[in-house]
Amino acid sequence: MAVLQDFKNNVKPNWCPGCGDYAVQMALQKAVVQLGMEPHELALVCGIGCSGRFSGYIYAYGMHTTHGRALPFAQGLKLANPKLNVIACGGDGDGMAIGLGHTFHAIRRNINITYVLMDNHVYGLTKGQTSPRSDLGFKTKTTPTGNIETPVSTLEMALAAGATFIGQGFSLQLQELTDLLVAAVRHPGFSLVNVFSPCVTFNKVNTYEWFKDKLVDVKDIGGYDAGDKGAVLNHVLEHEGLLTGLLYENLTKPSYEKISGLAKNNQMQSVKKLAPDVFSELLEDFY
Amino acid sequence: MKSREITWQAGGQQGEGLESLGEILASALNHLGYELYGFRQFSSRIKGGHTNYKLRIAAKAVGTIHKSCDLLIALDKDTMQNEALNIQEQGIILVDSILAQDYSGQARCVAIPFKDIAQKHGSQLQKNIAALGCTVAVLGLTEEDLEETLRKKFIAKGAEVVAENVAVLKAGIEYIKTEVPSLLGVLPLPELKHKEQHLFILGNEAMGFGALSAGAKFMAAYPITPASEVMEYMVKKARKLGGQMLQVEDEIAACTMATGAAYGGARAFTATSGPGLSLMSETIGLAAMTETPLVIVHSQRGGPSTGLPTKHEQSDVFAALYNTHGDTAKIVLSPSTIEEGFYDTFEAFNLAEEYQCPVIVLADLQLSLGKQTMLIPEYDKMEIRRGNIVEASSLPPIKAPEYFPRYSVAQTDGISGRIIPGTPNGICLGTGLEHDESGRPTEAKDMRIKQTEKRLQKMKTFLANYKKALAVDAPYSEADALVIGMTSTRSCIAEVVEILRQEGKKINHVQVRLLLPFPAKELEQYIRQAKKIIVVEHNATAQLAGLIRMHIEQCPHLENILQYDGDIMYTEQLLASCKEVL
To answer: Which of B152, B222, B257 to mutate: most A Cβ within 10 Å?
Structure first.
């Protein structure tokens, strides 16, 4: 059985000291150990940005793709190689700006992968520009007089897309985040885990303290039912998305693999010549 | 007297069953052993629902259509106004009698009450079958020649429907026999010397079939003319073979998903046209940088931007070769017949895995949407080669933080061992960034140079080994001219060259089947043998000629024959253009 050390590669991340992403890295390593995975059974697929470097900081198969495209890559990989555990990682620029279309469609497609979205409301790697998650009025290099565009509500978007698993964590709550990631990977379908992962360099508004003050754990909401989509939406609206925990799970909607039939018959790893009778049958169409 | 060949054409409004009329006729003729080439034409002069289908029927292989036809079935005014102008002087027009067209041309024009014939023996919807009956009579065929095809086509709808269609077919034949007996057998089909079993296959289907035969089971794509038939074919076939075709949100996703699946060990591809390739350029770079075996079928249409979506062009050559930023190692094949469309797509998957790079199969609208008889692919000759995939059994145990050197620069051919993720003891990284031998990002100058050269070395290795870069018909060591083309102009050029040779000119013909890396050395020997070089292509900027100039030092003067009106190339026009420059 693999231990935490087996997932460490001794590469020093290029993240700033105090970055929220360190906690996500630690939680993910703990989660995969808890899930009993071996490093070679895991593939991490990332986009571009601070969080995009994730795949290079954990010892497992890793692919650092292009900006916003981690999800299409990860979905193709999972369908082609179904035994692999596929986890895609990205930030709010990657998943909510350039890749928002892919995020939405990946959610509705419901392929059995996990998407960890590190949300810091700002662009870090390009040194401090606005993000589609930036609050109204938030001042950055590209919004010197304050952001005037409505921030994307990740949670409302995910619910609208027909998500079957939505979790939300916070970098200061390591144990809760680890548990959430374990549940997300176990979920049979697409699981979205949005993590508030503060940027200590370019976001002096949405800080650790800011989130700590505002976030409400759904466990502390009496009668919270993660299976009631309408009620979940109401809670999301009421708390302006600042909730943590397993927010929503739908186990009745089957995964893409199940509906398509791939769960029963997936021959993509078998690359060989068609059997003579299959080849003959295909010819029949053209006589 | 038997003719050399016959071109049959039918024009009418969409929904009048023109396509099935053409399909049934072609299928029956294929069974009889004729060589065929069918092409559905769209005309820019006509708004609305007009469509027309041309079928060339011959005793030896034909690969394009001519502008003129011998027998025209006209079911709408547009057909009479436009297509009837192109008929041979000795030709015959069978025009729907409800149209009451004044025709003043040389051909013989006969009004036929298709609708009445159909209604009397079935329903008026079957007027296409009545037209089929008349066609059969004029071509000197019998109902027996068609019956089996009709049965196959309609049996799913029940025996009654089959019987009704057969009755309408017979009535059509009978009408010619009794009402216009002078037309009976007046356009006889060519004599068949030998009969061979052929497939009658659409270019896009041939490429889809080629992919499937090569073991491709993953396709992600976004619908686009003229490439959609590839995904439509795959969706029908892949599932049963344990594969999947996904229609995804856009071409970026299509290409990236296919790349992800290819990285995961499947044979994966996408198919697109014009604007789709522009969107895919980002991921082509990722596949090249991560050395992932991606295959793209790209069918060219008129550009730029949305351009001429239903029209033919060959103006994406530079885009296919260079639309990705950076020094990109990739392969671009350019099949020149439907048969090559099958084999090149099959081979693209071998090359993508052997050389661990993206491979584009560059087709064009005519190649994609033309339908042609082709010999049954030789099963025994189809060979799957996966290149250097490192199996778990050959890997010594490794542990974190040790990585497998996926991008090792030790090999002189540039090809390092590839690992399918999930393989124990093979952990390595991949990134669109420049990287070291294990796939970790690096900016070290020495490694940057080594990795760049590694990727480009693969292309040199490939070019040295590849045997199908050119399709050559060059019998003259001292030729008056060499005609060079690419993709679907092959057949048209070949016909023109044949005519010129009969007129005593020494003309060689080379169709370039590999565009990247460019087979300059091989092509140069034929260029040296000719006094004049004529490059024929469907674009305004002479892209193929540009490639030749770029790669061949001391390139002689090239004459360009360029066409960019959206139409395909016809023998008559090309012959005239060639004579002008000769």
So the answer is: B257
**H-assigned helices in B214-337:** 228-237, 251-263, 274-290, 317-322
pLDDT score of B101: 67
Pick the CATH number of B201-377 from 3.30.720.120, 3.40.50.970, 3.40.50.720, 2.60.120.200: 3.40.50.970
As beta bridge partners, residue B246 has B220
Q: Are B266 and B293 in contact (CB under 8 A)?
A: no
pLDDT at B284 over 80: yes
B47 pLDDT higher than 70 = no
Question: How far is Cα B264 from Cα A220, in angstroms, rounded to an integer?
Answer: 42
First-residue to last-residue Cα distance in chain B = 36
Which residue of A45, A75, A79, A285 is the best one to mutate when testing the B interface, meaning the one whose CB has the most B CBs within 10 A? A79
* Site from B30, B241, B380 to mutate, A interface, most A CB atoms within 10 angstroms: B241
Q: Which residues of chain A have pLDDT under 70?
A: none
Residue A82: closest CA among B334, B233, B260, B507: B260
Helix (H) or strand (E) holding B558, with range, is strand B558-562
A-contacting residues in B 173-202 (Cβ below 8 Å): 197, 199-201
Classify domain B470-581 by CATH number.
3.40.50.920
pLDDT, averaged across chain A: 97
Is the predicted pLDDT of residue B263 greater than 70, yes or no?
A: yes
The pLDDT assigned to A129 comes to: 96
Phi, psi of B471 (to 5 degrees): -105, 115
Two structure tokens written together for B418: 């590839």
A37 to chain B: closest CA residue: B422
Convert the pLDDT of each residue in B370-387 to its tens digit: 999 999 999 999 999 999
Whether residue B48 has pLDDT greater than 70: no
Interface of B with A in 251-270 (CB under 8 A): 252-254, 256-268
Tell me the pLDDT band of B193, cut-offs 50, 70 and 90: confident
CA–CA distance from B276 to each of A2, B325, B582 (Å)? 44, 16, 39
Flag whether residue B460 sits within 8 Å of chain A, measured between CB atoms: no
A77/B264 touch (CB, cutoff 8 Å), yes or no: yes
The superfamily CATH assigns to domain B5-183 is Pyruvate-ferredoxin oxidoreductase, PFOR, domain III (3.40.920.10)
**What does the pLDDT read at residue B554?**
85
**Tens-digit pLDDT profile for residues B446-479:** 999 999 999 999 999 999 999 999 999 999 999 9
| Subunit contact A272:B209, Cβ cutoff 8 A | no
Give the C-alpha separation, B541 to B562, whole Å: 8
Q: What percent of chain B has pLDDT over 70?
A: 98
- Amino acid letter, B296: I
Q: A210-261 pLDDT, tens per residue?
A: 999 999 999 999 999 999 999 999 999 999 999 999 999 999 999 999 999 9
Q: Where are the domains of chain A?
A: 4-286
Spatial distance between the Cα atoms of A130 and A147, rounded to a whole number of angstroms: 7
Any long-range contacts for B157-165 (C-beta under 8 Å, 24+ apart)?
Answer: B164/B121, B164/B122, B164/B123, B164/B126, B165/B122, B165/B126, B165/B129
Q: What is the pLDDT of residues B121-156, one digit of tens each?
A: 989 899 999 999 999 999 999 999 999 999 999 999
Residue ranges matching CATH 3.40.920.10 in chain B? 5-183
Q: Is A51 helix (H, G, I), strand (E, B) or coil?
A: helix
Task: Please state which architecture CATH assigns to domain A4-286.
Answer: 3-Layer(aba) Sandwich (3.40)
Pairs of CB atoms within 8 A across A/B = 206
Distance CA B251, CA B270 (A): 9
What pLDDT is stored for residue B1 in this prediction?
A: 46
CB proximity under 8 Å: B 359-378 to A: 376
